[in-house]
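#struct-help
A.M.: can someone run this one for me? Single chain, 578 residues.
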Amino acid sequence: MAFKTETLDRGDIISIVGAGQNDYAGQKGIMPVTKGGYSNTHVNSSGGEYDGGDRVIGFPNGYEVDEDLLFTVGWGDGFAVRRLNNDGTLTKIYQDTYFLWRDTTTTYNHLQSVAIDKVNQLGVVMTYNVEGYTTFDYSGCMNGGTTFVKDARPTHSTPDAFIGSQDTGGGYVNRVGNSYTSGIAAAGEWIYAADHDSHHYKKIMRRNINTGVEQRLDQTSSDVYLSGSGVIDRSGYRGCMFYDEVNDRMFQFTYYNANFTLVVSASTANPKTVWCDLGDAGVGDDGYEQGLHVNDPTNAPNRMWVGGNSRYLDIDITPCFTGGDPTIHNQISLSDSTNNITLSNNGRMGNKYQATSGTPMTKIPGYPNYIRTHADRDINKVGGWLDTDNNKSPGSVRQDNTTEDTTTGGRGRSLRYSYGCPAVLMSSANGTKYWVKMGYSSDGHRFIIYEENDDPYELIGNWEVIYGTFTLANSATVDSCFISNSDGITIPSNCSVTVYVSNDNGTTFETYDTSTTTAHVFSSTGTQLRVKISASGHPDKSPYFMGMNGPLAIHYKSMHDAAKNSSIKFKIPRKRLK
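D.P.: on it. Structure tokens below:
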């Protein structure tokens, strides 16, 4: 008898715990889900105190945090300042939809970059697609205050230039970042800015927002680059800025040429640059893939994950300090549908803050090597993580056509965004900590808040899916089965997967050997087939099925008694010829 074949589709799911299965754009994957969802939130609101400046599209600096104050810029709804209260709610202190000053008369509301000087409580807002900037003073908001000052429109000769207004010939900055990565970041009193256009090739631009002093750090000058390090030999622009607050290091990643400059002692009067040439290391060129994650910023500050050309990279930049190229340890391709969902060369991963304790913090406490990925351009909408054991980036193409666990911990469905950024752990005035999540589109345009102990961005870890019930014609017995593509289940280190099959509708299950190409023969008798996949994982990693190379499928049939029972003797009649 020939095998009957059924794909293990969402519609066949009897129960699912700790995971979700999707069916979209060629992917039929199974992914572990996080503990936090849409329903088990502390706050989930877009109205009243939560309306305005909530369409946070910028990465990584679409928001800033100073103690209990949260500063946000929104794509279409301007800028806002809120206070995290002791009860986990937010109070809106200030909001201005058209916050950005442009030229001499106009304003603008689509913003993706904010940076603050926590020393003097000053800040600046800019964006990438129009010229202009707005500075502000929030010192009156500290310690429970509510006085916020938006500085007047600039009146100098080039009012839209944040840096270089009096001497544009030496390079200037009047719009920053990319679509939609942030092009400004603060190191102490200094605001570093990378222009969207090619206005300052091979220069790092910064302005002391307290004194007004501007500097153009020429990376080709021996007065600027760190002694012994390589000299920049590529021109890039449309920079994305990350600040490692643990080591006082500024990172400027450029879209064009996708290499980066490290600025050490970034908050001081004497910063030095280190050129990190990913192109010479063979992984550079243009790239929208952006991110930074330093696993151990205290003991190993030079080992990190960054974005490269259509890939995420595990690198060590130690050789760059003596003129060499970064050491490439691992790569995760974002255009390889064999092992990953294809992100169309757009990706976000890692963290705004590199600290592993305290607040504000975007890493997951206790799991410093857990690297989250974030939505970009409607792809990877529920987020994912980097499986550094197998060099893959598990996640769902989208949330469409998904069946998932909505009951564990009262989580409801998974959060979804068109553009995502890492949630931030903040402290209120009395030290109570809450996770605050923002984003753009879908579940963006609102604030999601969890209590600290909800551990919302940890994976549930262990998951299980049961499929069925499958039958043969005329209720024939199901004697053997084979599961195709089961070898495509990826298992990170210290995790496990066990597949079970049952021919008596789940009354008893038998272990299925995924390592063999031989069909499983049941020891029991039954007519109703079920399949159970059980995974053992952890809060920072768990098994998954990427599902980009065909779905899991079950093939099953009846067998003749002689084929399934080895104890039956076969007798061949014979006759002696005379």
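A.M.: thanks! The longest strand covers residues 463-470.
D.P.: also worth noting: Confidence is low (pLDDT under 50) at residues 566-578.
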